Fold:
Amino acid sequence: MAAHTQVEDQAEHTHHVVPLTVYYAVYVALLVLLVATFLVSKIELGPFNIVVAMTIAVMKMILIVLFFMHIRWSSHMVRFFAGAALFWLTIMFVLTLNDYFSRLWFRLPNT
Amino acid sequence: MATETHAPAVEGHGAHGGVPYLHHHFDDLAQQRETTSLAMWAFLATEAMMFGGLFLAYTVYRSLYPQAYVEGSHHLNTVLGTVNTFILLTSSLFMALAVHAAAMRNRKQLVLFLVITWIFAAGFLVVKGFEWTADYHEGIMPAVSWHYYDEPEHAADVQRLAHYGIRPNHVMMFFVIYFCMVGLHGIHVLIGMIIIGTLIVLSSKGLFTDGNDQPVEISGLYWHFVDIVWVFLYPLFYLIVIRQP
Structure:
């Protein structure tokens, strides 16, 4: 073929075929994290139980998004769209929880 | 490897010399792939916002009545929840393998992996069915079968909770949130099964192993998203600290 245009190069890029070993490794990692989540929940850590549980859940999510959903090999545009989802979620959580958690600081009379 | 023959990037019409699955409104395959991917991710973003709203409700209510959550979580079957997480993670693996098979144009493998994915998905719903049947009989299903805390043999539980300022209604709220979130997720699993079932039928006819593997790929994106939602639901509902209040 003639010299690849940028668009045709992108065709190669967006059609990246992932080696199977990557999938198997990610799967094993996910199972390890599952066992870890389960075991850690049996230990009493007070407020840190939820922190550890969510940290592990986020790690699993990152593995699934990066490798199973191919973000690792995706174009900037696709990554931007994926990141946008997280961005909007963050706004919703941060602003709403700011509201709820600060209600205790500024009590009105009779509330 | 993109070995399809396709027209060089001229304006408009890819019909001549383009592959049959290159739609006319795209300049070339790369653009079609990218657009299809972006479209699915945009949809997943809306799905994330939908579940996100429910997760937010969970968070607010849990911050207000943490003991009610510990109590509610104790009614749930942690073993079955863990088994279900394993089931969904495994189905995700086989979906990824199916996407790979489609890219490699291996029809038999594609169908096999899709079928295995589907079976695991069905397994998830079967386990969920057992769980919810038990919940129904135990009397912790709001609006449908709520009588656990009304029973005389559980009066001690009601007293124990009252010590923490929790009434059975607070625990009911936990279960409202539980059944709404896990139920909505279950509906998504069911929809996923319909999509994968359709893929099985069409891929057995060779539709996705001629280079047009995108439908399988974006279905995979949907399925992985459903898996991610469960990855968060599992610890939030089933793994609240083991020690009862």
